[in-house]
Design a protein that fits this description.
Largest sheet: 3 strands, parallel
Structural class: alpha/beta
Number of helices: 2
Distance between the termini: 33 Å
Length: 96
């Protein structure tokens, strides 16, 4: 896996960022980080996709959201939905 990167822009001008969020040590809370690790191996060398282990970066990740036109955010949620379900939330909607 690549080292965690911090940047002010999108150095390779890739249109898509896959951003895994979570604490690697916290079980399913680390879901996004684990998925990012797996996807980074599958997507390595893809000219259109950057994969990032965002860890628990919080607001420090904002430059990544600003630098990419499309961001796919992978994270666990605390709700009643069982672990085998995937929820897609379209952030371009007026109401989520």
């Amino acid at each position: 896996m690549k080292d965690t990167l911090f940047l002010d822009n999108n150095p390779q001008d890739k249109p898509i960022l896959i951003l895994g969020i979570g604490n690697y040590l916290m079980g399913d809370e680390g879901l996004g980080v684990h998925v990012a690790r797996i996807l980074s191996l599958d997507m390595e060398g893809d000219p259109d996709i950057e994969v990032l282990d965002g860890g628990t970066g919080g607001f420090h990740l904002m430059p990544w959201f600003e630098a990419f036109e499309n961001v796919i955010l992978i994270d666990a949620t605390l709700d009643e939905i069982t672990f085998e379900n995937v929820i897609l939330i379209d952030a371009t909607l007026d109401e989520i």
